Amino acid sequence: MPGRKLLTRIVSEIRRDIASARARDPSTRGVGPAQLLATWPGVQALLAHRVAHALEEAGVPALPRAIAFAARTLTGIEIHPAASIGDGLFIDHGSGVVIGETASIGNDVTLYQGVTLGGTGFSTGKRHPTVEDNVTIGSGAKLLGPITVGHGAKIGANSVVVSDVPENATVVGVPGHPVRVDGKRVEGPDADWIHLPDPVADAMRALSSRVAELERELAELTGRPASADGESATVLPLRPVQGRNPAGG
User: Fold this and answer.
1) Which of 48, 102, 154, 165 has the least C-beta neighbours within 10 A?
2) How confident is the model at residue 218 (pLDDT cuts 50, 70, 90)?
3) What is the pTM of this model?
4) Which one of 1.10.10.10, 3.30.70.660, 3.30.1490.20, 2.160.10.10 gives the CATH number of domain 2-179?
5) Cα first-last separation, the chain
6) What are phi and psi of 235, to 5 degrees?
7) CA torsion sign, 187 to 191 to 192 to 197?
8) What is the edge-to-edge ordering of all strands in the sheet holding 160-161?
């Protein structure tokens, strides 16, 4: 029967959501499934969405929006009933998370509080982001428009992303700049927000090296001494990197 198949699908998705919360949230140690469902806002919001989305697909009027509204009121997480969400999404804390109508989220994605998957105007059709599998999106990040975030990408906290993100890339800044992390592949819910690259400092360092090189060339042409040491100026990152990887890496 269609009703039994639908219920079976929802139960399977909820079990995967609970398993994802257990795997990615250290505070779930010793917490049973019933307590997770009763007290974890991210799990509750997903449970409500699974039901609302199934009803939306079945063409039931009004009720999906009512469920989404109730979930937003209780959890602070707003997910449009039409949004497509794969298995294993984990929303950590979740307050302020907004997922728009045409957003699409793949499997094993991690969202932190304050994330927005939003639109950029009044256009119709596809107007929200597509997030592929194994993506991690940091606190307060805003992903706007019908962009695609590739598999394994990592979005730094408070970044504003308005263009496509390649697979396994890391994005930081406003607007977001895609970069790599030490040339290593980014995979899964890596929560190391301390050791993200600093593209502004990198650009300043490149400019400093170029200025030093031009000063040396000018000194050779004019016979005048170059600067005191003839070396590039020291460029300090805007965000000092200290401490070990909090993700345990």
Assistant:
1) 102
2) confident
3) 0.69
4) 2.160.10.10
5) 48
6) -115, 120
7) positive
8) 78-79, 98-99, 116-118, 142-144, 160-161
